[in-house]
């Protein structure tokens, strides 16, 4: 009888442990996701009735049964997989040339009617010229209902729509988030042009040499395109007739207004 009771208690204990949420150490945004009060949203897992594992980010105050003052509309619990997929799409839209655009995200805040995504510019560009060009390119990719606000340490993408969860998906609108279209050949060529320009420029900001390779001499000219033209290329919003092949032998005017007249009208 005693052994039977002990076995039943052990089984009950195991069931309780299975049904409890557990820390999730594989979460992509651990330490970077916060609720409207600035409280960290900690990754956890839970099992459904069928034994399937579900991942969530839950406000630390909720997990520790602490008071959660603030708006009753505050979002304190989000499904991890769908949120991670959505943030990846946004990061890829804003940084289409980055090898790992999610790495540049330093902080995400979930507000009742807004989502704020903070990008760390120090992980993306090493000098001020590159930062200025990158900022213009990212600002050109901002969509309707979004704004791009810089400060000294973080570039904030503020999405003024409430996060919705339906059918295992995180969305802002019924259509979801559309990925940006990009001419990767032209974008990489402009990026290479800036690298060549940096290599050929002295400490005084003047050109000290020219590339010996004819193809590289063609590429370095692309670094002198007007900033708004370059931003449009990186945003995938350049005119259809503007391509690397079109720029290969075309003269590039020195004046930006002349460039716009030649390539954008």
Describe the structure.
This protein has a five-stranded mixed beta sheet with strand order 2-6-7-9-8, covered by helices on one side. A four-stranded antiparallel beta sheet has the order 1-3-4-5. It has a two-stranded antiparallel sheet with strand order 10-11. It is built from nine helices and eleven strands. Strand 10 (164-166) and strand 11 (169-171) form a beta hairpin. It is of the alpha+beta class and 265 residues long. It folds into two domains: 22-180, no CATH class; 184-263, no CATH class. The chain is elongated, with a radius of gyration of 25 Å. It has helices spanning 2-19, 60-63, 80-94, 128-140, 184-199, 214-220, 227-234, 244-248, 256-263, and strands at 22-23, 33-34, 41-47, 53-59, 77-79, 105-110, 115-119, 146-150, 155-159, 164-166, 169-171. Helices cover 35% and strands 18% of the residues. Helix 5 (184-199) packs across helix 6.
Set down the secondary structure blueprint.
Elements: H1 2-19, E1 22-23, E2 33-34, E3 41-47, E4 53-59, H2 60-63, E5 77-79, H3 80-94, E6 105-110, E7 115-119, H4 128-140, E8 146-150, E9 155-159, E10 164-166, E11 169-171, H5 184-199, H6 214-220, H7 227-234, H8 244-248, H9 256-263
Parallel strand pairs: 2-6
Antiparallel strand pairs: 1-3, 3-4, 4-5, 6-7, 7-9, 8-9, 10-11
Helix pairs in contact: 4-7, 5-6
């Amino acid at each position: 009888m005693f052994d039977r009771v002990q076995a039943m208690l052990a089984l009950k204990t195991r069931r309780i442990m299975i049904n409890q949420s557990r820390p999730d150490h594989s979460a992509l945004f651990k330490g970077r996701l916060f609720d409207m009060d600035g409280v960290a949203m900690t990754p956890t897992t839970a099992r459904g009735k069928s034994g399937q594992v579900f991942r969530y980010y839950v406000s630390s105050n909720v997990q520790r049964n602490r008071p959660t003052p603030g708006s009753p509309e505050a979002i304190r619990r989000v499904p991890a997989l769908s949120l991670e997929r959505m943030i990846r799409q946004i990061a890829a839209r804003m940084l289409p040339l980055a090898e790992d655009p999610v790495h540049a995200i330093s902080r995400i805040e979930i507000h009742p009617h807004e989502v704020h995504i903070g990008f760390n510019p120090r992980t993306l560009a090493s000098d001020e010229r590159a930062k200025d060009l990158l900022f213009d390119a990212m600002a050109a990719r901002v969509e309707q209902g979004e704004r791009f606000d810089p400060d000294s340490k973080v570039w904030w993408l503020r999405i003024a729509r409430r996060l919705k969860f339906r059918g295992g998906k995180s969305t802002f609108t019924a259509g979801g988030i559309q990925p940006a279209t990009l001419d990767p050949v032209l974008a990489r060529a402009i990026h290479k042009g800036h690298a060549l320009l940096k290599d050929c420029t002295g400490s005084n900001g003047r050109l000290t040499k020219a590339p010996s390779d004819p193809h590289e001499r063609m590429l370095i000219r692309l670094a002198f395109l007007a900033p708004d033209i370059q931003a449009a290329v990186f945003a995938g919003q350049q005119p259809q007739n503007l391509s690397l092949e079109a720029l290969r032998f075309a003269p590039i005017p020195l004046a930006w207004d002349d460039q716009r007249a030649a390539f954008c009208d």
